[in-house]
Amino acid sequence: AQTVTQSQPEMSVQEAETVTLSCTYDTSENNYYLFWYKQPPSRQMILVIRQEAYKQQNATENRFSVNFQKAAKSFSLKISDSQLGDTAMYFCAFVNAGNNRKLIWGLGTSLAVNP
Amino acid sequence: NAGVTQTPKFQVLKTGQSMTLQCAQDMNHEYMSWYRQDPGMGLRLIHYSVGAGITDQGEVPNGYNVSRSTTEDFPLRLLSAAPSQTSVYFCASRSILGFGANVLTFGAGSRLTVL
Known about the structure:
The complex is a heterodimer. By secondary structure, chain A is an all-beta fold. Chain A has no helices and twelve strands. The model of chain B has no long low-confidence stretch (mean pLDDT about 95). In chain B, a hairpin with a 3-residue loop joins strand 4 and strand 5. In chain B, strands 2, 4, 5, 6, 9, 10 and 11 form a seven-stranded mixed sheet that branches. Chain B has a four-stranded antiparallel sheet with strand order 1-3-8-7, with no helix packed on it. The relative contact order of chain B is 0.32. Chain B is globular. Chain B is about 0% helix and about 50% strand. Chain B is mainly β.
């Protein structure tokens, strides 16, 4: 079965510091996409970053970057210079390539950024 | 602004009542879906559609109906509400092809309480 595991239900970090959220997944396919979504207290789900499995280079978006280890099926999110607005639930997800494929979601990591 | 619009944002129902959650997107996305989000259970797919006239079941379809008569709209119907359907519901859409393919855009969510 295809699964996504986020082993850290809750994390906290001091403002301006760096934090890494872990995510592992399981799929037998070779071509897929990985995502991190953020859900702040407002409830709106927002895409943070995306990685194509065929790309070896790790994706970055400003203060957000990933460490993608395909062989280990690991996709961690690093948040640098944490800000109070980063306080949110973070969900890891992947989808196998193909038109009708469904996203597989982790259960989320609740991140609190402390002043 | 372009995006996914969900209504209503909040709704309280009595057991046995029916209602429809509305979802509309203006991005010409082929794929639309409904999720429910419950504490500790992440996001669970209820129903999805890959185009007008085509719908299919997700993980937790029981008690819900959908239809897709146009590309833009994907309403979710609760025919006889039950307390177990108390949840936050998200509509999400994505393009199947192109650079943005597989990236879900979410609505703001609808909090439903069934008494």
